[in-house]
Amino acid sequence: MICYACLWLLVLALLSFNSRAEAVRPPTRFGDTLFQIFQHERCLNCHQFNSRRSNGKSYTSHRNRYLCENCHRPSLTGLPEGGWIAPNARMDYTGLNARETCELTKRNVGSGDKNALLHEHMLHDVRIRWALESGMTPGGRFPAVPGGYWTWKQAVEDWAKSGMPCD
Ligand code: HEC
Ligand code: HEC
């Protein structure tokens, strides 16, 4: 004969075990998934564009190219007008480790609530979106970041839930 009360107790025990396992889950770190995506060429090629230290494209193939959107036209990139721009050289994170990249990113993201600003930027910036889903250039389509926007968003939200720690 089946002991229903025993089964019920077993279910309760399993449930409480499960919620305890949830509670002790280690925090998501910047280095877990996000750092790897930051290292992708689609992100890095633009972030080192103006960097002499990294021999960025403004010092090589793009030495005499100024009016970016004459070639990187909005109809080609899918970005709004004025959207195709490269960051200042201080946003070049080439060669930095995960913690340093994370810290540099927070330093550069603007003043105010750093985590909120960064969270917003990561989810809604049009250039990030381009790197994750398009990769289209005047020289043809380069591979977008594997996993696309969904993987990225998931990683950003996991990190945000952990309080966006740099180490
Ligand atoms: C005369 C056309 C032309 C102009 C103007 C131009 N580009 Fe480019 N750009 C290209 C071509 C072609 C490629 C692909 C070949 C390469 O990577 O150099 C490219 C590639 C790039 C890449 C690399 C993309 C990747 O993910 O690998 C970046 C970043 C970039 N351009 C930024 C800029 C910026 C910023 C400007 C304005 C300062 C600019 N470009 C102006 C033609 C141009
Ligand atoms: C077409 C060039 C371009 C591409 C591609 C690009 N970025 Fe950026 N990124 C910029 C510019 C320009 C800024 C500064 C924007 C501003 O100040 O509003 C920036 C700012 C940022 C910031 C916030 C400022 C900071 O450094 O703290 C982060 C984080 C960032 N980018 C990450 C990425 C990641 C990750 C990718 C790839 C998935 C990427 N970017 C692809 C141009 C680019």
Q: Can you put this structure into words, describing what you see?
A:
The protein has one domain (28-161). It has nine helices and two strands. Helix 7 runs antiparallel to helix 9 (148-161). Strand 1 (136-137) and strand 2 (140-141) form a beta hairpin. The longest helix is centred in the first third of the chain and has 20 residues, at 4-23. It has helices at 4-23, 34-38, 41-47, 68-71, 74-77, 98-108, 114-124, 126-133, 148-161, and strands spanning 136-137, 140-141. It has a two-stranded antiparallel ribbon with strand order 1-2. By secondary structure, it is an all-alpha fold. The structure holds heme C (HEC) (2 copies). One heme C binds next to helix 2, helix 3, helix 6, helix 7 and helix 8.
Protein traits:
167 residues; mainly alpha; two-stranded antiparallel ribbon; 50% helix; 2% strand; elongated; binds heme C
